[in-house]
Amino acid sequence: MATVKPTRWQESGLTLWWVMLVVLVLDQLTKVWVVQALPLFGRVDVLPFFDLVHVRNYGAAFSFLSDQGGWQRWFFTLIALVIVAVLLIFLRRQGRQLKVLNWSFALLVGGALGNVVDRVRLGYVVDFLDFYVGSYHWPAFNVADSAIVIGAGLMIYDSFFGSGAKSDVNQKSKPKS
């Protein structure tokens, strides 16, 4: 199936702007609620394997570089904004028919922007979802992180089973019958 290049943004993946907005708003609302409802390092037991917590992440994923002098705040903000810009360009250039890939990019953009807002406004990212087994805890995360992981998973899925699975190279290498 050949993809049609959109001539207007309404024909492109940018029609999923609302997904980006929903992720961003939901992420920010849940973070505001956590900051107001729980003191820093506060914890609410929800299930035997899940708690709500209030923690701050000054680094990136898994608190990478969180113990640095503050430069990482702007470094991670810049990286996220570059990635957002690239994904928005991709969304504009690809047609609406690339549904899974467009959803993956929209989730990635919404999640990245949610964490960028925290970094710029607060200097850190608010995390609050804490899953664990016994004393082994997965690092706390938030709605934006969840959207990023789901978006990355959809992108991987699409590369194997969707629009990315059938590249021009694969099509050219097939013998003609």
Automatic annotation (TrEMBL):
It is an enzyme of class 3 (hydrolase). It is found in: Cell membrane. Pfam families: Peptidase_A8 (PF01252). The active site is at 127, 145. GO terms for cellular component: plasma membrane. It is a multi-pass membrane protein. The chain crosses the membrane at residues 74-91, 100-117, 137-157. Keywords: Aspartyl protease, Cell membrane, Hydrolase, Lipoprotein, Membrane, Protease, Transmembrane, Transmembrane helix. Its EC number is 3.4.23.36. It catalyses: Release of signal peptides from bacterial membrane prolipoproteins. Hydrolyzes -Xaa-Yaa-Zaa-|-(S,diacylglyceryl)Cys-, in which Xaa is hydrophobic (preferably Leu), and Yaa (Ala or Ser) and Zaa (Gly or Ala) have small, neutral side chains. GO terms for biological process: proteolysis. InterPro entries: Peptidase_A8. Pathway: Protein modification; lipoprotein biosynthesis (signal peptide cleavage). Belongs to the peptidase A8 family. This is Lipoprotein signal peptidase. It comes from Aliidiomarina sanyensis. The lineage of its organism: Bacteria, Pseudomonadati, Pseudomonadota, Gammaproteobacteria, Alteromonadales.
